[in-house]
Amino acid sequence: MMDICIYQINGERDKNRVSFMEYEALPKFQGTQEPNPEIYDRIYEGSVDCSTLEGVYEKFNLDHPAEFRGHSLSVSDIVEVVKAESVKPGFYFCDSFGFKQIPFEPVKTQATSKTIKVVMTEPGQHARAPEIDSSLRVMQSVVGGAMDVS
């Protein structure tokens, strides 16, 4: 089991177009080796049943958790290992082959919204557009049953 956060580049703030670029290419395009935390969004935070970074990569490519709202884990994404038995806590850049431990300042990133705006129509009532938590559990309670968000 690992406690992790995943950071992905927000295309609107990626002025140097470094999204999906390998670690060694960063200086050529942004002038510095280290990823710029200001262009990243924190898009996932939670516990996963993985014991390695490769396991995290596989999970976030083949079996996303329901509350995960990012793209499949890819080159230029950053995985923060908060707590794990077999991986040293820290920040890991997803590179072309494997992961590279890097310095990273998460306080300069932005968190993605955990809420979504929905339009609710119920018999005999006017439509309304509340914001709700984007977790699967809350969405299922709103619709009154099971649903799949994949």
Topology readout:
Blueprint: E1 2-9, H1 26-30, E2 40-48, H2 53-62, E3 78-84, E4 90-94, E5 99-102, E6 110-111, E7 115-117, E8 131-133, H3 136-143
Parallel strand pairs: 2-6
Antiparallel strand pairs: 1-2, 1-3, 3-4, 4-5, 7-8
Structure description:
The chain is of the alpha+beta class and 150 residues long. Helix content is 15%, strand content 27%. It contains 3 helices and 8 strands. The chain has helices at 26-30, 53-62, 136-143, and strands at 2-9, 40-48, 78-84, 90-94, 99-102, 110-111, 115-117, 131-133. The strands form 2 sheets. It has a 6-stranded mixed beta sheet with strand order 5-4-3-1-2-6. It has a two-stranded antiparallel ribbon with strand order 7-8. The longest helix has 10 residues, at 53-62.
Quick recap of the structure?
With 150 residues, the protein is an alpha+beta fold. It contains 3 helices and 8 strands, in the order βαβαββββββα.
How far the N terminus sits from the C terminus, by CA atoms, comes to 24 Å
Q: What is the H/E order?
A: EHEHEEEEEEH
- Indicate the percent of residues in helices: 10-25%
Q: Could you give the count of β-strands?
A: 8
Task: Spell out the key features of this protein.
150 residues, 6-stranded mixed β-sheet, 27% strand, two-stranded antiparallel sheet, globular, alpha+beta, 15% helix, 8 strands
